[in-house]
Specification:
Shape: globular
Order of helices and strands: EHEHEHEHEHHEEEEEHHHH
Largest sheet: 6 strands, parallel
Strand order of the largest sheet: 1-10-5-4-2-3
Number of helices: 10
Radius of gyration: 31 Å
Length: 253
């Protein structure tokens, strides 16, 4: 899911109303790049002003991001005894499936795989991972109708968060700086079309090999290539025998 620029303060306003000094701290994962470090400085100053507890974890690469997900994010899940919460990724995670890297897509016992953990993704690097932008949390963003047909929930329309969206539901939220609405319209339409396609069941039958397919096509056209090949080879053998018979035998001296 992605948060359009017109609703940029929607989630933070909800954070102000639901968090206090005794709330679980917000986890900030920040890459070691100048832009991300400056954004972290500004964001943490905002959190301190509003008395929202937080802790910062530097991330040097995808390996560190995976370790942070295993040691710091997964313990926040309801299934693991945590109380959920917010994870803010600054300058990291935009080009990969962040739910998979942080371990928020593992379904256990039919429960919510995110476990009440919501990831705010703020990254200037491109290209975006389309799963983060247009899905993020497909089990909530989609509803199943008549078995396989899938429709978007009212709070999230084609991956875009609406004003009626209720924060704190978990999943991945990408902060849009205007690029998604302006430059990813074609990708958005294609991705949503793929989500709405019905699932195809595999019946386990193997496809015929190329020879079988070619023979079937020849049989439809009324041709028999195998027999023609045999007749041609037989004709060539007969021609070789006639040439040998016509050659005069040389006597040995």
């Amino acid at each position: 899911m992605y948060l359009p620029r017109t609703l940029i303060s929607h989630l933070y306003q909800h954070l102000l109303h639901t968090h206090h000094a005794q709330s679980p701290p917000i986890l900030v994962l920040v890459s070691l790049e100048p832009d991300a470090l400056c954004a972290c400085r500004i964001f943490t100053a905002l959190l301190k002003r509003d008395y929202i507890p937080h802790k910062i974890q530097p991330v040097a690469g995808y390996n560190d991001l995976s370790i942070a997900g295993e040691q710091m994010v997964q313990p926040m899940k309801w299934q693991n005894g945590g109380s959920g919460g917010v994870v803010v990724c600054l300058g990291v995670g935009g080009m990969v499936d962040i739910s998979t890297v942080l371990g928020l897509n593992e379904v256990a016992g039919g429960q919510d795989p995110s476990g009440g953990v919501q990831v705010w993704l703020i990254d200037a690097r491109r290209p975006w991972n389309l799963g983060n932008v247009f899905a993020g949390r497909p089990e909530d963003a989609l509803q199943t109708v008549d078995g396989n047909a899938r429709l978007r929930a009212p709070e999230v329309v084609d991956g875009q968060i609406q004003r009626s969206y209720k924060a704190g539901q978990g999943g991945v939220v990408v902060y849009d700086d205007g690029d998604i609405d302006e430059e990813l319209a074609v990708e958005r339409e294609s991705y949503i079309a793929l989500l709405k396609m019905p699932d195809v069941e595999d019946d386990g039958e193997d496809l015929d090999d190329s020879d079988g397919a070619s023979e079937a096509a020849d049989s439809v056209n009324g041709e028999r290539p195998s027999k023609k090949r045999k007749s041609w080879s037989g004709q060539e053998d007969d021609d070789e025998d006639e040439e040998e018979n016509r050659r005069p035998r040389q006597r040995r001296r």
